[in-house]
Amino acid sequence: MKLPILAYGNKTLKVDCDAIATNSDDLNKLIDDMWETMEHAYGCGLAAPQVGETIQLFVVDSIVMYENADIDERKANFIEGDEGMRETFINARIIGKSDETWDEIEGCLSIPDIFKRVTRPWSITIEYLDRDFKAHTKTFHGTTARIIQHEYDHIRGVLFIDRLSAFTKKLIGTKLKKIMSGKIFTDYRMKQ
Ligand SMILES: [Zn+2]
């Protein structure tokens, strides 16, 4: 089932989300719905608070980014042998970040029509449970690491625009007000 995506301005997007204690049928249904919602909106990541659930859960698909990238972008944004991945992250914790950083344009399904450069570490190491509650510790790089960091921010109530300079944030002020007042068109269902 496709879920409405909460728009910028909704207070749920600012919540520091709770850890998930146990697996359940409801959780599995929510995960399925989040994948369906993200794919329908042509997103590459979606976090539970974006669909109104303040729990530490997000889904990431960097395969779609790899497939849509040209040869130069693949060379710049993916390491050798990395063709992206699809994964569900529960109770994730980033335990390591590279000193090396890079800038790339980001957007967010909750903040439509705004795309800005964000500086983030090139690599991260993350501990998480997958949807079967199997524990993993993995290191990701480039675009995959960027999407994970964007979604990881979401479950802590942080949006990518919070990482922009005061100057850039001022430039997008009018657009943000439009989103808050629901005066924006999207191909997917949004809710304020
Ligand atoms: Zn987002």
UniProtKB/TrEMBL annotation:
<comment type="similarity">
    <text>Belongs to the polypeptide deformylase family.</text>
</comment>
<feature type="active site">
    <location>
        <position position="151"/>
    </location>
</feature>
<keyword id="KW-0408">Iron</keyword>
<dbReference type="Pfam" id="PF01327">
    <property type="entry name" value="Pep_deformylase"/>
</dbReference>
<dbReference type="InterPro" id="IPR023635">
    <property type="entry name" value="Peptide_deformylase"/>
</dbReference>
<feature type="binding site">
    <location>
        <position position="108"/>
    </location>
    <ligand>
        <name>Fe cation</name>
    </ligand>
</feature>
<dbReference type="GO" id="GO:0006412">
    <property type="term" value="P:translation"/>
</dbReference>
<dbReference type="GO" id="GO:0042586">
    <property type="term" value="F:peptide deformylase activity"/>
</dbReference>
<feature type="binding site">
    <location>
        <position position="150"/>
    </location>
    <ligand>
        <name>Fe cation</name>
    </ligand>
</feature>
<dbReference type="InterPro" id="IPR036821">
    <property type="entry name" value="Peptide_deformylase_sf"/>
</dbReference>
<keyword id="KW-0648">Protein biosynthesis</keyword>
<protein>
    <recommendedName>
        <fullName>Peptide deformylase</fullName>
        <ecNumber>3.5.1.88</ecNumber>
    </recommendedName>
</protein>
<keyword id="KW-0378">Hydrolase</keyword>
<dbReference type="GO" id="GO:0046872">
    <property type="term" value="F:metal ion binding"/>
</dbReference>
<feature type="binding site">
    <location>
        <position position="154"/>
    </location>
    <ligand>
        <name>Fe cation</name>
    </ligand>
</feature>
<keyword id="KW-0479">Metal-binding</keyword>
<comment type="function">
    <text>Removes the formyl group from the N-terminal Met of newly synthesized proteins. Requires at least a dipeptide for an efficient rate of reaction. N-terminal L-methionine is a prerequisite for activity but the enzyme has broad specificity at other positions.</text>
</comment>
